[in-house]
Each structure stands twice: as C-alpha cells, then as structure tokens.
Specification:
about 210 residues; 2 domains; globular; single chain; Nucleoside Triphosphate Pyrophosphohydrolase; alpha+beta
Length: about 210
C-alpha cells in the first residue's frame, strides 16, 4: 500500500452557495455516497493561503502576535496570507506576506510542507515555505490596518518553539505544522533536500 493522498471527486447531485463573503463563501453540495444515498455537505470555499517559517542565522523563527476574533485569542503565528489573486504564484504571495507583515526579505526559499487546514469543513490549502538568509527589506514599511495595527513581533529559538507546541502554549496550525516539519526535515534528509520553492502544488495550480 502506498501512503499518498489521491484526488477523487464523488458525484454531486446539486450545489448552492447560501453565503458569499468578502474573501470566502459557504457552499452546500448534495453528494452521492458509495451506497447510493445522498448526503448534504456544507463547507467553506477558500482561495488558499501561504505561510512563511522565516529562520534567521541564530536559529530563531520570526513570529508575529495577532488577535484572531473567531477564537477570541491573540495567537503567535508565522507570517501568512491569502492567495486572493487567481493563479498567483504561491512563492510571490509568500514573499509579499513576509515583506508586508515583518518588513523582511529572504534569499533562500524552499517548500516546507503543504496542508489542508480543516478538510472536513473547508477546502483551504496552505503551502508553508521555509525562508532563510533573512535581511531587512528596503523601502517604506507596509501600512497596516485592522488587527494588524496591534501586532507584536518576536524571534524565538526553534527548540523553545517545539517545547511551546508540545506544552500546548501555541496553537496556530501553520506555526505548529511548520516548526515540527522543520525539525523532522533536519532529522531526515536535511533542509537542502526540501522541495524547491516553485515545486508543483496540485491543490492550488499556479502560473510560473
């Protein structure tokens, strides 16, 4: 048996979109099950996201702290954002988010991992990049708004972050998946064996 996710689409008898928001919507599909029955499935339709685990020369991860209203918490996170331009190259989106949220640029980019955040209720796909060889970005800082105006910043050693993850102190999915994937990659074939930054991403096809 090969352990690898495979694309598959069951028959949809009908579909409707009862809610359309600014960036996402909610869709209801009537899906034919293997036994021939039909079940309604409600889920959020999402454009996809990118996240950046930015690692500096002192083996620290760049974090931001931001209020997240749905969970009523201020969460420590890695820079991330929506792919709200159809077909956008995810690397370009990740570079933009690192600049806008942290005013940082990186010279070395790799794909750390790809995940579906909540596949039982949302079609969001996230590509998490590893960014190294960091430096301050040139030009004016990006003008923030809403929750971003109160963001805080920190650079935290990888070992401490792993401890915080396992202790239940940090909960952002991209941070948790990203830092544990980093440690796993180091313990395996090494960071230089990670996929290139422009590796194909079937979940969100993009132009080169």
């Amino acid at each position: 048996m090969t352990i690898k996710d495979t694309p598959e689409e069951w028959e949809i008898r009908s579909t409707e979109t009862p809610f359309r928001g600014n960036k996402t919507s909610v869709r209801t599909d009537e899906v034919v099950m293997p036994d021939g029955s039909v079940a309604r499935r409600d889920y959020q339709v999402h454009p996809g996201s990118v996240a950046v685990l930015a690692l500096d020369e002192e083996d620290r991860v760049l974090l931001i702290n931001q209020y997240r209203h749905p969970v009523r918490h201020k969460l420590w996170e890695i820079p991330a954002g929506l792919l709200d331009v159809p077909g956008e190259n995810p690397l370009h989106g990740a570079q933009r988010e690192l600049y806008e949220e942290a005013h940082v640029k990186a010279e070395d980019w790799r794909v750390l991992t790809d995940v579906y955040t909540t596949p039982g209720g949302c079609d969001e796909a996230v590509r998490i990049f590893l960014a190294r060889n960091l430096s301050e970005a040139e030009g004016e800082r990006f003008e923030t708004e809403h929750e971003e105006t109160a963001m805080e910043y920190a650079r935290v050693p990888v070992d401490e972050l792993v401890h915080r993850v396992l202790a239940g102190d940090v909960h952002n999915n991209c941070l948790v998946v990203g830092v544990l994937s980093l440690v796993a990659a180091r313990g395996g074939d090494g960071l230089d064996s990670l996929r290139p930054a422009d590796a194909p991403w079937p979940a969100r096809p993009f132009a080169s």
